[in-house]
Structures are given as structure tokens and as C-alpha cells.
């Protein structure tokens, strides 16, 4: 079955450490996205990529970095510069233009806790 | 700045009740409005609306868009405990036509009591 796989499900890190969240999709989608979800807040876009080897900053990119070396993979690194990294991170993918037959698809998320 | 406001933010009803969730928006160059259901993990797609007045229906769920008054509603009839979830509304705007143009509301947390 096609889908988006995020790993790990839960991640615990000490403050000051960089951490990388994995996202892999086999939907053959060109576009991939990273969102952050905090309690009581809407999903906020961190980074997105519409084509391999290219990516753009979203609304809250500071303290994060990404790469897009393969169409299937879009890993997110949470750096020590991110002031408040504890959150639920969702990866998503879509065709470049959204449609009813191709809406945004989400992975199951990674819950990151930094102490 | 694009804005999407969902109401209520939380709602507790009894099984069998009908609920109406609201989503209002202020965006530049509206393209579409999407509804998602999130049960702890991945949001799952429910509806995408682009035209006013045309109801989208899937089982006990239905949704309609009013582009003049800038809102959408999501109705759930004969609610079941499995409908308990956070319902997310997102509006796609701008010229790019991709999910980078999506603005999400804060969600409505719906709890169905047996």
C-alpha cells in the first residue's frame, strides 16, 4: 500500500543536540512538506520541497534544516538553534497541485521531546 | 496575512447527536478549502471544496462552502464514538496551487460520549 512513513514515532533528546526525523513516501509525489503541531495551534509549515534538490522555507523555518536528495525522502533536522523543539512533527506529500483526487497525504508523525 | 478560524475549539456531545463544525477564513486568492480528521496521528482527508453551495457528502458526513460569506461547515449526523477526533480545516490560497499555500485552523476537538 502506498503511504508516508515517519520514523521514529517517539524521540527523546537532550537540549543542545541536533536530531534528524525521517520521512519516506512511496506515492510518487513530487512535493513534500514538514509541519509542526503544538497543542491548541494549527499546523505550521516548516519547510517544503516541490522537486528533488530544491526546497523552500515555510513560516517557521528558523532552527530547522532539510534535504531532498531523493524524490522519496525528505528528512528534517531539528538543530540546537531551535528554541522550543518539543512538538509533534508531521510530514506530508502531494502532487504539486492539490486536487480532490490528490489532496495532501500525511504520515503518522514523530513526537519529539527535548529536555 | 491569511487567517482560518474554526469554532468551536472543543465540543462534547452524546452518541446519536448531530454536530456542526464551523470554519471561517480571510485569505487572498482563495483556491480551495479542505477538511481533515485527526485521531492522534495522521490527519486523514475528508473533503475538498472549491465551489459555493455544492454539498459534498460521505456517509454521515457532509460539508458545504459559502464563498460569499467566507465560511464552510462540516456536519456529522448520528454521531458515533469513532467520530471522536480533532477536525482540521485548511484553506488553500495564492497562485502557486500547492500545499505551501495552505493555512490551517486550530482544529475542533470533538468528543462523542456513549
Descriptive notes:
The complex is a heterodimer of chains A (115) and B (114). Chain A is mainly beta and 115 residues long. Helix content of chain A is 0%, strand content 48%. Chain A has no helices and 11 strands. Chain A has strands at residues 4-7, 10-13, 19-25, 31-37, 44-51, 54-57, 64-66, 76-78, 87-94, 105-106, 110-114. In chain A, strands 2, 4, 5, 6, 9, 10 and 11 form a 7-stranded mixed beta sheet that branches. Chain A has a 4-stranded antiparallel beta sheet with strand order 1-3-8-7, with no helix packed on it. In chain A, strand 5 and strand 6 (54-57) form a beta hairpin. Chain A is globular, with a radius of gyration of 13 Å. Chain B has 114 residues and is an all-beta fold. Chain B is 0% helix and 59% strand. Chain B has no helices and 11 strands. Chain B has strands spanning 3-7, 10-14, 19-26, 30-38, 43-49, 56-58, 61-66, 71-76, 85-93, 102-104, 108-113. In chain B, the strands form 2 sheets. In chain B, strands 2, 4, 5, 9, 10 and 11 form a 6-stranded mixed beta sheet that branches. A 5-stranded antiparallel beta sheet of chain B has the order 1-3-8-7-6, with no helix packed on it. The termini of chain B are far apart. The mean pLDDT of chain B is 93. Classes of the chains: A mainly beta (115), B mainly beta (114). Chains A and B meet through strand 5, strand 9 and strand 10 of A and strand 4, strand 5, strand 9 and strand 10 of B.
Amino acid at each position: 500500500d502506498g503511504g508516508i512513513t515517519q520514523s521514529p514515532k517517539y524521540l527523546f533528546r537532550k537540549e543542545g543536540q541536533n536530531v534528524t526525523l525521517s520521512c519516506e513516501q512511496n506515492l510518487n509525489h513530487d512535493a513534500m512538506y514538514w509541519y509542526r503541531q503544538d497543542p491548541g495551534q494549527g499546523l505550521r509549515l516548516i519547510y517544503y520541497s516541490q522537486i528533488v534538490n530544491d526546497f523552500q522555507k515555510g513560516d517557521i523555518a528558523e532552527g530547522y534544516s532539510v534535504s531532498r536528495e531523493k524524490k522519496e525522502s525528505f528528512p528534517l533536522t531539528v538543530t540546537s538553534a531551535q528554541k522550543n523543539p518539543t512538538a509533534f512533527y508531521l510530514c506530508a506529500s502531494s502532487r504539486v497541485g492539490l486536487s480532490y483526487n490528490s489532496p495532501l497525504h500525511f504520515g503518522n508523525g514523530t513526537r519529539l521531546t527535548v529536555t | 496575512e491569511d487567517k482560518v478560524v474554526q469554532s468551536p475549539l472543543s465540543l462534547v456531545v452524546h452518541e446519536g447527536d448531530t454536530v456542526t463544525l464551523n470554519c471561517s477564513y480571510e485569505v487572498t486568492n482563495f483556491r480551495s478549502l479542505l477538511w481533515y480528521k485527526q485521531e492522534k496521528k495522521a490527519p486523514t482527508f475528508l473533503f475538498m471544496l472549491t465551489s459555493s453551495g455544492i454539498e459534498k457528502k460521505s456517509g454521515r458526513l457532509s460539508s458545504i462552502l459559502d464563498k460569499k460569506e467566507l465560511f464552510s461547515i462540516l456536519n456529522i449526523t448520528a454521531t458515533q464514538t469513532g467520530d471522536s477526533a480533532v477536525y482540521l480545516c485548511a484553506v488553500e490560497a495564492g497562485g502557486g496551487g500547492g500545499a505551501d499555500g495552505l493555512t490551517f485552523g486550530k482544529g475542533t476537538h470533538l468528543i462523542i460520549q456513549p
